[in-house]
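Action item from last meeting closed. Structure (165 res):
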């Protein structure tokens, strides 16, 4: 696992180190799936969570360098108080979101296809299916989305969907 330091590394594959993710989980309740997992499993989950956050969100601002492996660090992103986030750091909200997402991925494969996803109604007598466009993208857990939603928009099926508060 190669942790992005804020330098715009060419080969990084995680927004947070294993030690920092362990520290994040020490401050939370109901994290037995994290604390009982092996370090290899945790690292795999952190890399997977990073990949998903990297690919499922159209982040505000611009990549700090053209060749960096991940979409963070970034220029022109502001924190909740309106201060510019330095383009040489991975912000704490993103590290926390990555750790939270990783624990969720260890608990359940959130990317697994659900055969009923997209449908909210199925009528057998005179067959009727009704598509529910809002149920198709549950890949980002609500707690993770709450941490990142002020810094970007979700992508759904290659389409940008604005879901900001």
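Sequence:
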């Amino acid at each position: 696992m190669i942790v992005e330091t804020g330098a715009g590394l060419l080969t990084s594959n995680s927004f947070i180190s294993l030690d920092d993710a362990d520290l994040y989980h020490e401050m939370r309740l109901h994290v037995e799936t994290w604390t009982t997992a092996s370090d290899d499993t945790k690292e795999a989950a952190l890399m997977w969570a990073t990949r998903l956050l990297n690919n499922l969100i159209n982040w505000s601002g611009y990549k700090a360098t053209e060749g960096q492996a991940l979409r963070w660090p970034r220029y022109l992103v502001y924190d909740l108080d309106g201060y510019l986030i330095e383009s040489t750091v991975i912000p704490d909200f993103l590290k926390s979101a990555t750790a939270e997402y990783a624990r969720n991925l260890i608990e359940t494969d959130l990317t697994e296809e659900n055969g009923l996803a997209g449908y909210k109604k199925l009528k057998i007598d005179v067959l009727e299916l009704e598509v529910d466009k809002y149920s198709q993208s549950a890949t980002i857990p609500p707690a993770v989305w709450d941490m990142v939603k002020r810094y970007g928009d979700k992508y759904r099926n290659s389409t940008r969907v604005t879901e900001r508060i």
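Note appended to the action item: The chain has one domain: 18-161.
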